[in-house]
Amino acid sequence: MIAVNDAMSKHFFYNRYGTGQSTLDGILRATNILLAGKVFVVAGYGWCGRGIAMRARGLGARVIVTEVDPLPARGSDGLV
Hints:
Order of helices and strands: HEHEH
Strand content: 5-15%
Number of helices: 3
Distance between the termini: 37 Å
Helix content: 40-55%
Number of strands: 2
């Protein structure tokens, strides 16, 4: 058994994977459109923005990320 709620790194996984999936699920259910071939703009490249960008790219969208802070803007995980 692993106590995930007590883990210091829980927010990294939850923000990146959980928020990305649930946000895109809400958008797709509300608009009833497909993302394949669309341009998808993500404002901010924190942990939540990375998760959303990763999921949108996985669904076939062209992802554009806007970020004002130069350090996260360089896109160290290759999504940009």
